[in-house]
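Worked problem 6 (solution included).
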Amino acid sequence: MLHPAIRSCPVALAALGAALLSGGCVSPNALADLQSQLNQAADAVNDIRVNLSSMQETIDSLKIVVARQDTTISRLANATGVQVVK
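Solution. The predicted structure is:
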């Protein structure tokens, strides 16, 4: 038994039927193209993850270098009596 709102609107029922029927008629070539595009998108996302990981390692390395330089500058400033503004 159909819901009263659906029974009162045959245009909506016809549109729903057309949508269901058209969804089942997808060509195999279209599905293969979609699968290929999804694989390419997955590969691109994986490449982005690898690049982000590499960049994070570089940033972490640079933070260590900057911290060492900051420590060296502070020690030199203390040894020479120069004030360093931070």
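Discussion: The CA atoms of residues 35 and 41 lie 10 Å apart.
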